[in-house]
Amino acid sequence: MASDHTRTAILSAAEQLYADRGFADVTLRDIVAAADVNLAAVNYHFGSKDELIAELFVTRSLATNRERLNELKAAEAAGGGRANIDSILRALVGPTLRGCLGPDRERSAAARFMIRASIESVPPIRRIKNREIDHLRKFAAAMRRSLPDCSEVELYWGLHFALAMAHQTIRDSERLTKLSEGLCDLNDVQGIIDRVVTVSVMALTGGEAQSKSPARPVAPYGRLTRQDL
Amino acid sequence: MASDHTRTAILSAAEQLYADRGFADVTLRDIVAAADVNLAAVNYHFGSKDELIAELFVTRSLATNRERLNELKAAEAAGGGRANIDSILRALVGPTLRGCLGPDRERSAAARFMIRASIESVPPIRRIKNREIDHLRKFAAAMRRSLPDCSEVELYWGLHFALAMAHQTIRDSERLTKLSEGLCDLNDVQGIIDRVVTVSVMALTGGEAQSKSPARPVAPYGRLTRQDL
DNA sequence: CATAGTTTCATACAACTGTTTGAAATGCAA
DNA sequence: TTGCATTTCAAACAGTTGTATGAAACTATG
Q1: Residue of B nearest to A157 (CA)
Q2: C-alpha atoms less than 13 angstroms from C-alpha of A96 in its C-beta half-sphere
Q3: What pTM was computed for the model?
Q4: Contact A148, A221 (CB under 8 A)
Q5: How far does the CA of residue B3 sit from the closest CA of chain A (Å)?
Q6: Chain D, protein-covered positions (CB within 7 A)
Q7: Which chain A positions have a beta carbon within 8 Å of B24's beta carbon?
Q8: Which one of A81, A141, A177, B96 is most buried, counting C-beta atoms within 10 A?
Q9: Which of A63-77, A114-128, B69-83 has the lowest mean pLDDT?
């Protein structure tokens, strides 16, 4: 095996290109040109283009999920087994947002690739993606423990909206910048995370609990959310 | 010109296919097969594949914007020139949500096509899409009139989050259904609109004003939103 | 009917796609 | 060094893509 220089060069070139231009208009020839390797190397090392994409996705997917779960566990440990809803949501959206936005965008290809993958539904990824449901279920369970009086339906909608705001902010950051003429600062990642989490918490608790700062947890339970809607 | 049966057959077949399968893996041959016309008809009637896509997008874009603006104007007229924030947001997200979700999903290809177009950034569409900014600015202006004490930044973030929740709900309705095991009812379009609007209003007003029903407007102004975040 | 203009059609084209091939180069153990 | 396995390479492959062509079919006007 020697050094898998070629392998890793292909992987990182592919990730970069897919992240920047999407799956549709990136060819194997683009990838090998960027990686400065021979065209046949892709099939030699990965078997096929689809397997290359799958490997890329699986690797990053596991890493993101691990990062999220680490934050979740840390939060639950700090809360004596029951994390507050604020920190749960922060663990959910933080890793991806930090990876994609902010001034240190150079190493963000990984996160941007994952966003692409979550949008453009290319066959090799579609087959793998069902596992994400199980991953999200862990967060749903943590949220349930954190907000025992919150109805199941509200819980899932809150989770859904949190991800929606986080992902769309990454995906369409350009539009928001243009629309607000630069007013909305997309380099302030922490501010964005705070914003997404705050709104999500309001969605979950019906606006009664407001978490203004990450340091100030909302009351972990007792918030009735049967707000009729 | 006779009857542009062929033209319209191509347009609607293309829209349907693009909406269902995305731009990446739909070929002209797929389209003409679905439309039951000759392959050369596309280039004869539209000039090129890109021009076909562009025409599709422009047509639908204008229609959606018109629908939104009609609702907005109706709301402003009803409010004596200043609509409440609730109905503004409803005009913004309602048309697309109603078009994409719900039980009458058969004629939803138009709206689903627009969602695709807003995600998969294919060249002919990218060139046109800048106009949408101007369209959204009208909603930003209406929101500003409705919430004069709301800071500009909060306003844009609120607008952004509203669109984020609406679009992601359409885009990833399948995941939400699976995750919630059917608990979240995606056929209840009105309920979804209420939900998105309510959360957006909370995001804009800091959770003080809660709009539970479309009939009950929130106070049009006087809500300070400098909530530090 | 005849004719001019429009529209359809089968077919071909050139460009590009992912993949394969077999030989050349390389690395490493004996 | 020799010998063997791994890795790289240029070239070619078969399939698909969007587009172009020129003849045929159609439509409507005179």
Answers
A1: B184
A2: 28
A3: 0.86
A4: yes
A5: 35
A6: 6-12, 16-22, 27-28
A7: 23-24, 120, 122
A8: B96
A9: A114-128
